Amino acid sequence: MKRWRKAIFVMTLGFLMFLFMEDTTLAQAQIKISVEEGIDGKVKEGRGFPLKVTVENTGSDFKGDLLFDYAPSYQTGGARALSIDVPANSKRTYTLSIPGFNDEIRHNSNQETIHLFQGSWEKGKEIKFKGDKRLTPDFIYSNYTTIGLLSENPDRLKGIKGTNMGGNRVEALTLTKENIPEEKTGFQMLDYLIIDQYNLSELSQDQQRALKSWVDTGGVLFIGGAPHLEGTLGSVADMAPLTFGEESTLSDTSTFNVKKNIEATFNSLAIFKGTVKPESDVLVEQDGIPLVVKSSEGLGEVWQTAFSLGDPALNAWESYDDWFANVLSKTKPHFLLGQSNGDQSFLERIYYEVADSNELFPTTNFKVSTLVIILIIYLIVIVPLLYFLLRKVDKREQAWWIIPAISVLVSSGIFITGAKDRISKPHLNQMNVLKVEEDKSVHGISAFSALSNSGGDYDFISNKHNLDITPARVRNSAGGVNQYKFAVEEITKDNRSIIFRDVEYWSTRTLLGSSEKEEVGRFIPELVLEDQTLSGTIQNDFPYDFTDVYIWSGSRMYRLGDMKAGDTLDVDKKLSTNYLSSPIGVTPNMSAPFPNQQNIKQQKKERLENFASQMISVDNENNSPVIFGYTDAEIFNMKIKNKESKSENFSLLYQHFPSMGNYKGAFTLRNEQLELDVLPVKGQVIEHYSHNGADEMGLEDGTYELSIHLPNQIELSKVTLHSLNMTLHTGGVLQFSLVDPQTDERLVLSESSTNSIKVNDKLNKYIDDNGEIVFEFEKRSQGDPFVRLPNIVLKGEVQP
After folding, report:
1. Domain ranges (residues) in the chain
2. What is the pTM of this model?
């Protein structure tokens, strides 16, 4: 009887377990995930993009977490967490943004990049589900230009869709209220955004805030003219450089004849007369009416036209796409947005040029001589002394344990002395390069590196409105797989939490990306430059002390001294020139040794200066010099949850100020003073090998424009150019012509046997109204992309 009871009990238990397992399997199979990536199903390589996630539940109530792997570059990656709560027999839609994909994770078709957990991802169980298991977006590669179109009637902008940017194909993406990202990260996939006759005030506050933040960190926004425009721009209205008044008609359209092959075929155009806001630049005008106006906003730009960009007259003009491409060529998105034209991803740049030096932590080092002295004391003093002492008390048999004990104590003492700083608490380093704006805000890049003092998970918490950061993978670790097992990102209303999983003992973890903060402060310079002497004052309006403050002009840095918060620094500095101009970069020693803490600090300074020079080179600040300083203050609040860390901060803050001084009499200008810039006409810029004065680039075979800009201190009406000398470094590869800004005709320049070009006649006719001289050059090297731009020497005279 007992046997039968046991058998029935076992069978009943097995049946119940089967039912339970079956129920769980059914529950797992009743969740279906559908994902729409990017905009129009497309994303840009290595840049952030939005996701629209639909969760369908045909079973019982479900709560859990979805994790989406991302890897915007080979050195960065993690997963974004999304908490879902889907009642039985229902469907819910969620939106979020992730930092991007690269080819490695995209082409690994066997690797699932979407993971579902029942309950939280930290404590719950990963379960199976139906639907999309991987993110499979269509890629827009970095040598494409992406333009977002936002209009009530996107077909009005059809003339722009065919635009070709210097050989780069333009990918025009249609935006709607439903697919506009609610996070700045989602806007990163766009190079430009065009708004024409669209009511932005209908967007959510999160969408409007994300749009503004995208511009501040390097985006380029175009706003077309429309009736009652100010009332339709929402929170973006304060960024518009033009305020509109009455509607009118432009009867003279000759201003649209920007090149020989681009001439207006329409005789009139509807416009809106407006007033230009302070600090804005008028780029195109006709009869005193501003038609195209630009203003700088943080690291980005806002362009505004007095006419609708979708006007029927423009759409019917067969050269409209070429005209608009010419406008786009005068600006470019800031490189902080991401990879472009084949350049290294900006996250890779931050890591290898800044963050890797941030992963160096102070340590207590013993000199070799100190260790030798300890060994001598141990071998010569301790052992003989111990022997005679034990012999005297007749306890020599105790030596068997005393000598090992002393060895353990000495070894422990050496270890604890050297590791004491790393045992007590984790270390957290912060490095920043930040541009200071007139409104006291700052924008730039940041890197945070931690050294663990124990194993386990490390949760980094920061303000998501200030920091848009991504986990950096450990050096030499496998990328592209199991990103969610490395780091998980969670977003709340105001904070971003990034949890590094299973961190090893005494290991480093790094976060990096773009940063911004309002109402930080600024330098207030009141300076005069006379007879090569700079004098006056600079007030420190920051709440930070600066250990070093410099003036940076050309390739020279003039140290002015230290500044406490709120202090005013007296300046009396002898310069080497009669003018101050835009900085030229420095080249740091990327493989410098680190024998001591002083050298680590010096290398960090070089790295920050190098990265700052790259940012300055694309600031479009009209050849203006810079004030910059170093501070050890904590600018951004970063905490490790449930851990008290030892922090070390080191930041470079820079601020442009107006050009000073003037040119009198004869002058000689070289590349350093001329601001060389290359734009593709037909071809592509593959890579900038150097951004700091060496002028080395990778270019496809094709046609390009090289422009040089005379310093602002030269009064164009009084200047006479005498000679132009160009020394070429790649004989026969580049063929140059001078472009006449009035007729658009080309003067072919002949290269001499000494690889040089000389022009002595009628040079003034090649200076345009903005002080630019434009060359067109053909690159023909049969596949070798490397190009070094010529050394230019321009001689002239400024009449009194």
Report:
1. 28-139, 143-337, 346-369+421-661, 370-420, 665-798
2. 0.84
